[in-house]
Amino acid sequence: DMRRAERRNDGGAYGAGEWSGQAEEQWILRIGRGGGKVRGGEAGVPPLERRAIFQIGAEIATTQDCRMTNPASRRTNASGSQVLSGTRVVVTRAANQAAALSRPLAALGAEVVEMPATRVELLDPTPAMAAIARLADYHWLVFTSQNAVRCFWQLLGQAGRGLDALARLRVAAVGPSTAAALEALGVPVAVTPTRFVAEGLLEALRDRDDVRGTRVLYLVARGAREVLPVGLRELGATVDVVPLYRSVPDVEGAAALRERLLGGQIDVVTFTAGSSASAFVHAVGADAASRAAI
What we know:
Blueprint: E1 3-8, E2 14-19, E3 61-62, E4 67-68, E5 88-91, H1 99-107, E6 111-114, E7 118-122, H2 126-133, E8 140-143, H3 146-158, E9 170-173, H4 176-184, H5 198-206, E10 215-221, H6 227-234, E11 238-249, H7 254-262, E12 268-270, H8 274-284, H9 286-289
Parallel strand pairs: 5-6, 5-12, 8-9, 8-10, 10-11
Antiparallel strand pairs: 1-2, 3-4, 7-11
Helix pairs in contact: 5-6
């Protein structure tokens, strides 16, 4: 018994969705093409010029009023059709990570265009190798991206060390994807927050009694925010920040994609990181980037 409805979130924006009628509300915000409008659910609410699907990682994204589920968990709408049929979606994740988003979008009928906005470029490994040589001095390893996990594991192998080198260490991951990357390598994760951002991880660590007086190795991308190291130091930990890589714009295919954007042949562009958004706009130009829903 699907019912049309509209809900308002904390930011004052309105979205059109379908309610499943189940005990736990599940919402899918639909993508519309051709400038279709949705009438507001309350008097005085302006219509939406564009519609979008919101997916945060593989988990459920929740606002105060509505809950949006991973589209892969509901492949069809009430009539059994593919809800994204004919919708052209750009996935900007790195080539080795794009499939996790591209496949469920394609299963929903979307025409997926993969254009990595950034690529990973390893930095001088000397600081990381020095930290690996001193792993016995640390109590915690902290990771805030899958890329950091991959780079660290590569360097650990180059140093002739393996999983046993991490046996005494407690490991914290910013979210389930990063935790899954670690666990796939056999590394147990002690802390994963309920909010998948640096602030959420800091909150989770603040609730523990085994952080103060410890030494933390924080493995990151160059230019990462200082939220975690500053917060951990305030909690009484000693923190060594070691950049492993940097994200640089990947402009391959940007010219062709720019033409498609300017020609109205792209409906939605997806991003999973701020660096991807910045790199995408740099690659195709702000005028082209603004032609699609984000």
